[in-house]
Amino acid sequence: MGEDRSVKIIPTGVITPPKKRDMALGYAKGEILAFIDDDAYPKKNWLKNAIINFQDERVAAVAGPAVTPPDDNLRQKASSAIYESILVSGPYTYRYLPQKRREVADYPSCNFFIRKSIMQELGGFNTNFWPGEDTKLCLDIVYKLGKKIIYDPKVLVYHHRRPLFVAHLAQIANYALHRGYFAKRYPKTSLRLAYFIPSLFLAFLLIGGWLSLNIAPFRPLYFFSIFSYLGLVFIFSIPKGLRLISLVFFGIIFTHFTYGIYFLRGLFSRKLKEE
User: Fold this and answer.
1) Does 2.60.40 match the CATH number of domain 17-267?
2) Which of 50, 95, 154, 172 has the fewest CB atoms within 10 Å, counting from its CB?
């Protein structure tokens, strides 16, 4: 392929994505900045569908779903099914599946548009956190500047998933560690019950297990709760198809455990390594 002179590649060295994007801010000439990850690609009319939302001057940023490509392999699709499940993502499944247009206060930067003027006013991402740099940016947009972030299902990208189990769980651990830390550092967007549920479930398993061994009347309730949980996970694994049932079933369970443990690690950390 020949060189495309409309594309400018800027060498940065080994630095984190938010640092790269802050550096690119100095080179950008347009009024709107578009962020996308290196393992994602946009659907047709991605730019056009995003720009329409900026007709409202109160809108500072626009985001959209990051959908798994149809050519991802089986273990990648299993990872996708886990993220798409309400048992894992709770009220945030719209990040992985197109849903109704809405206003949001926190959104991943893998599919994100922002006015250049807003980015300049905030000094860029201006953080060493990664992941989590997008949480800080969104918080500044909404609570510092009083502007809007719009989620539009038509602003869609395809985002390759990390396959089960090791790569998927490593990503979950990193997300959970930062979200747990942000629950006390940035409570306006991260101190939400949904983020605490896996850790509360883990605490129930440990405390309930001890109680069931020492208090006989509690034992039936404890085991009923466990079997109910396993049954619920199985039910939510069925719609993903026969080839994915076992992967999704165990994947959801391991995702809950991993998230619960690392969320607590972040919550009780004095500082993260980025600081």
Assistant:
1) no
2) 154
CA atoms within 13 A on the CB side of 66: 21
Residue 250: how many other CB atoms lie within 10 Å: 16
